[in-house]
Every structure is written in structure tokens, then in C-alpha cells.
Amino acid sequence: MSYTIKKFKDNQVAVTLTERGNLSIKIRGNSYEDLFAIASVKEAWDAEHVLDKTVTSQLTIYCLIAQRSDRRFNEKESFDLKVVARFLNSLQFDKVKILHPHSAISLALINNAQAIDHFEYVKQAFNEIGNPVLVSPDAGAYKTTHHIAELLNADLVPSNKVRVDGAPQISIQGDVQGKQCLIVDDLADGGRTFKFLAEELKRQGAAKVFLYVTHSQFNYGFDELKETIDHVYCTNSYKDIEDDFVTQFKVI
User: Fold this and answer.
1) Domains in the chain, ordered, with CATH?
2) pTM exceeds 0.90 for this model
């Protein structure tokens, strides 16, 4: 099924269906504007197919907004992922697919949700580099990175970060002397944590350090990352990047 979206000068969005049938929407999903646009599409589709029980609706989100706000971090603060989940649930999609969600809480809060695995993109980076050691940047990333290491028959080096008087202290639990390393994580906002991790890996003798993240925000550019990281691999789930420092795998 296809549709057109018109945006008025006051930012109102209006949708017109151009044919009937199963609904499949694919969006970045990294803005509230995206969410309201798909709500308009779903409203028009529901109205047209209200008596047709043979059709289905599917939403694919490549970079779910608010996914890092997966709990109420402090009293009197909003639980932002819960707000987004309630909105999506109100649209009643038959299936919601999410690329590499930050945590399982997204899948628990959103009805009919399932994760799209990021393994194929890590594998492409792994093969292009040539059998690097995989590095999990923290305890939260260890489980998924361990699974990927098993599938690739790759070595895995865990790391961890704690803050002492506000400064990050990073520990590396493995030998990286003379080796190429690939840090694997879900999302980079500014990327300073990866800069410090790469610095420590090279201090311990790593020959080169590469970074893979599925969702590439990099809100502060690449100048600091280029000081310690040799190359970045990511998808274009969040945005398209034109920089020789970055290799992007197209998902949308």
C-alpha cells in the first residue's frame, strides 16, 4: 500500500492513501514529527480498512526516539520511552520492528514489538577490517557482543568504565598488544566514552582501534574521535553522514 504525505506551512501533516492493501511503514523514527506522521498514515489506513480483516499493518523503526530514557532516572522526571511506547501502542500496529533497540525495555513496553538484529552490519565491518578483536565498551554491551563474537569465531575483550571524581577510568580485561580492535555498541551520542576507551586500548598496545555503532548520532562531530579511533562503521538509521572517516551501511 502506498500513500502521500503533505506538510502545510504551519507544519500540519495530512495523508492521502493512493491504494488499498497491507500497510508497511519504514521510518527512521528519531523524531516526534516522525511519530505523528505515521499516526496520520495509520489513521487513514484504519478508516479505509475498518471492515477488512484480511490485511495487516507493520511499522519498522530504525532508530527509536527516547530509547535510552528507558526508566525514570530521577524523581519528578518524565519516563520518556514510556510516553513514546504509549503513543505507538495507541496506533495498534500488528507488528513493530525495531533495529537494535538500546535495551529489552523497548520491546517490553511496545506491543507486538521485535528486534531487528544488527549482526550483519557488525559482520561487514569485521570482515572489512580483517578479523579484529571485538571489544565490549561496558557491562551492558557485553552479552550481545559476546554473542556476536561466538557467531564470528572472534576473540572478545571486555572493558568497563567507572567515574572517579568525575573523570572516567577504564579497565581492559584482556590482551590487545599488537592487535586490531573493533569496539561494538548500539549508539553514539557525542562519542567521548569511545574516545577514552580507544585511548586506553592503544596505551595497552592495540595497533588500531575501530568503532561500530548501529545508531550514529555523533552530535559533536568527529574531531575528538579522530584523535584515538582509526575509523567508524555505522548504519544510516539516524542520519546520513558524508565523511571519509565513516563507513555507513544503508538501512533506510
Assistant:
1) 3-116 (3.40.50.2020), 119-249 (3.40.50.2020)
2) yes
